[in-house]
Design goal:
The complex is a heterodimer of chains A (395) and B (80). Chain A contains 14 helices and 15 strands. By secondary structure, chain A is α/β, with parallel strands linked by helices. Chain A has two domains: 136 residues, Aspartate Aminotransferase, domain 1 (Alpha-Beta Complex), CATH 3.90.1150.10; 235 residues, Type I PLP-dependent aspartate aminotransferase-like (Major domain) (Aspartate Aminotransferase, domain 2, 3-Layer(aba) Sandwich). In chain A, the strands form three sheets. Chain A has a seven-stranded mixed β-sheet with strand order 4-10-9-8-7-5-6, sandwiched between helices. In chain A, β1 and β2 form a beta hairpin. In chain A, α3 runs parallel beside α11. Chain A starts with 7 loop residues before the first helix and ends in a 5-residue tail after the last helix. By secondary structure, chain B is an all-alpha fold. Chain B has one domain: ACP-like (Non-ribosomal Peptide Synthetase Peptidyl Carrier Protein, Chain A, Orthogonal Bundle). Chain B is built from four helices and no strands. The termini of chain B are close together. The mean pLDDT of chain B is 88. The chains are: A alpha/beta (395), B mainly alpha (80). At the A-B interface, α5, β6 and α6 of A face α2 of B.
Chain lengths: 395, 80
């Protein structure tokens, strides 16, 4: 029996996509010119699907910090944090996250994916239960699978449903770990975190973990995420995030005030058995964090661009999945229209993300845009024009 | 309660059966009813509220057929 036989349907679906044009899941970028511009198939292309929210991938200070670290400390650490992979840089960046989030403890991870795997799987033991929002990211679900706790789902952004769940599970021993995201990356909607905090506080032995991967640097007066924006940070026990969005690098982090949080370093396998982040990644992330702390204009710029794109697409008649925010998800009527529109946009010099079922929340077909502080108003206007020209309006 | 599981689950699945195929215990949730992993979570959440039960997510991932789903719900109903 062919070991790949189980993927026959995946292969067939992908083949159908390729018949319609380019591969939305394998688009090559030939030349990257800036945080918002690239050359794709010989065409200048506006990048509108990179999660590069603050545009810091091309920030001169971040690039210099990365290059200097690579030159002075090498290209990799070749070891995990519990062996030879803890450098002064890792601890400096952890201190930066403690300062930024005003938390007692911070741990960095090699990827954002591993930050969720490590934190969730280490926090939730066999006697505990995990309560996970139905729209959570794959890294959260895999963290739940890796944990020995049983996981239960509650309806997306529905604190009442969570409350009901926790009530039904009241007789179970152990702790309850509630896991939600601040900003959901596909639809671009935010979580009612203050309501989730209130539910958590009504139930004994309940703890709240919030993944602020897409909201760090963008939401809140200081960029600490949706929890800060909604004024409920202190009710959040654990915050997890990534370097690969606003922080413009590769890696992840988790912060907490829990006095024993550092025990994760001795219990979380994705932390203990993975090579630590490279010196260049640590150095650029540390610099990006300083930029977020000292340049509030970056947040003003991304919100201005988000409003411009949201209003322009709405005015053109497109259905958007959420209010104004850094993720603008355009709802399309069906798979065929989504495929045709994505191909038309890439040929017209606009790169957006492509999402069709299976696996999308609510079975939605989406053209997902993410805005950057580095986009110019002219680029946003061009994107709106291209959308109006080439993407069929949903019926 | 356990005897009512199968007809109630079949009734709920009708909403996921736009082509109105005949649904039996052998009907595949994915290939026949087009219920992917995300939709399966929605189905199970509805069933959980209907029967006041809690189904761990790892058991949802193992579901292949309508019969698997009915048996899982029946086990949880009898347990609770």
């Amino acid at each position: 029996m062919d070991i790949f036989a189980k993927y026959a349907e995946v292969r067939a679906r992908h083949a159908r996509l390729l018949e319609a044009g380019a591969d939305p899941f394998g688009q090559r970028i030939d030349e990257i010119r800036s945080a918002t511009e690239a050359v794709v198939d010989g065409r200048p292309t506006i990048l509108l699907g990179t999660n590069n929210y603050l545009g810091l991938t091309f920030d001169p200070a971040c690039r210099e910090a990365a290059a200097k670290a690579a030159l002075e400390q090498g290209t990799g650490t070749t070891g995990s944090r519990v062996a030879n992979g803890t450098y002064g840089l890792h601890q400096q960046v952890e201190a930066g996250f403690r300062r930024f989030f005003d938390r007692r403890h911070a741990i960095v991870f090699t990827t954002g994916y591993q930050a969720n795997l490590a934190t969730i799987s280490a926090l939730a033991g066999p006697e505990d239960v995990i309560l996970s929002d139905a729209d959570n990211h794959a890294s959260i679900w895999d963290g739940c699978r890796l944990a020995e706790a049983e996981t239960f789902t509650f309806r997306h952004n529905d604190p009442d449903h969570l409350d009901k769940r926790l009530t039904r599970l009241a007789d179970r021993p152990g702790c309850r770990l509630i896991v939600v995201e601040g900003l959901y990356s596909m639809r671009g909607d935010t979580a009612p975190l203050a309501d989730f905090v209130a539910v958590k506080e009504r139930h004994p032995n309940a703890w709240l973990l919030v993944d602020e991967a897409h909201s760090t640097g963008v939401y809140g007066a200081h960029g600490r995420g949706v929890g800060e924006a909604l004024g409920c940070e202190k009710g959040i026990d654990f915050i997890v995030g990534t370097f690969s969005k606003s922080l413009a690098g590769t890696g992840g982090f988790a912060v907490s005030d829990h006095p024993d949080f550092e025990l994760l370093r001795l219990t979380a396998k994705p932390y203990m058995f993975a090579a630590s982040p490279t010196p260049s990644s640590m150095a650029s992330t540390g610099e990006a964090l300083r930029q977020i702390e000292t340049r509030p204009a970056l947040r003003e710029a991304i919100w201005a661009n988000a409003r411009r794109l949201h209003e322009g697409l709405a005015r053109s008649g497109f259905t958007l999945c959420a209010g104004v925010g850094p993720v603008v998800a355009v709802r399309m009527p069906d798979v065929e229209t989504t495929v045709a529109a994505w191909n038309a946009l890439i040929r017209a010099g606009v790169y957006v993300n492509f999402a069709i079922p299976p696996g999308t929340p609510g079975g939605l077909c989406l053209l997902r845009c993410s805005v950057s502080a580095a986009h110019t108003a002219g680029q946003i206007d061009q994107v709106i024009e291209r959308f109006a020209e080439v993407a069929s309006l949903p019926a | 309660m356990a005897q009512q599981v199968e007809p109630q689950v079949l009734a709920l699945l009708e909403r996921y059966n736009p082509k109105k195929i005949e649904v039996t215990r052998e009907t595949a949730l994915g290939d026949d009813l087009n219920i992917d992993s995300v939709a399966a979570m929605d189905v199970v959440m509805e069933i959980e509220d209907m029967f006041e039960i809690d189904v761990p997510i790892n058991q949802v991932a193992d579901l292949r057929t309508v019969g698997d789903l009915v048996d899982l719900v029946r086990r949880q109903v009898e347990k609770d």
